[in-house]
Amino acid sequence: MSIRSRKNVLAASAVGGLLAVGATVAASSSAQAIPYYEKSCIAYNLQSNTAVNGWRPVNYSSVTVYNGTVGRWVVVNFNADAGVDTAAEIRLGYRVDLGGIQTPGAQNFANHTEYWETRHSMSVLWVPAGTHTIRPYWRISGAVGKNGYIYSRCLTAEARTS
Predict the structure, then answer these.
(1) pTM of the model
(2) Which fold has domain 36-158?
(3) What is the largest CA-CA distance in the chain?
(4) 8 A C-beta contact, residue 104 and residue 125
(5) Contact 9, 17 (CB under 8 A)
């Protein structure tokens, strides 16, 4: 085989390879780190809570995770604009389906500051095999009459990525 023939074969192989890669990319969908059912963002929905109420669900915020046939650790992120009275804290926990409220990792979501601030919390929860709903809960830690508020919030759960 002559040098010219070899160059033509290599060029044709390279073009064929590039066409195959291009067709594969065009036919496949983009990868997502967080599928739509594993995120929930609510804007412009003010919630309040007081110390006497105890744990309350964060309204309209829940996500669904699918773990397949094995249980696994799930990374849960929650953020919100938050404000709380002096000498009080906002505490955060999570419930998987109808189980008890879990408080893994750091629980203190917000302390009093002069102005509201955007707050973020990341937790790691054990979630069994199958499809499950994760919902955040919050309470005010402080004396009777202490109040807290959350506004514009997002919840995400990262169960499986590929």
Answers:
(1) 0.76
(2) Jelly Rolls (2.60.120)
(3) 91
(4) yes
(5) no
Residues 134-152 have a mean pLDDT of 94
Residue 133's nearest CA partner among 105, 103, 95 is 95
Q: Are 44 and 150 in contact (CB under 8 A)?
A: no
* Paired tokens of 142: 């402080």
pLDDT at 21 (0 to 100)? 46
| CA nearest to 125, candidates 90, 162, 77, 69 | 77
Q: Does 117 have pLDDT greater than 70?
A: yes
The three-state DSSP-derived secondary structure of the chain is CCHHHHHHHHHHHHHHHHHHHHHHHHHCCCCCCCCHHHEEEECCCCEEEEHHHCCEECCCCCEEEECCCCCEEEEEEEEEEEEECCCEEEEEEEEECCCCEECCCCCEEEECCCCCEEEEEEEEEEECCCEEEEEEEEEEEECCCCEEEEEEEEEEEECCCC
Residue ranges of the domains in the chain?
1-30, 36-158
Residue 43: φ, ψ to 5°: -105, 150
Range of 13-17, 25-29, 114-118 with top mean pLDDT: 114-118
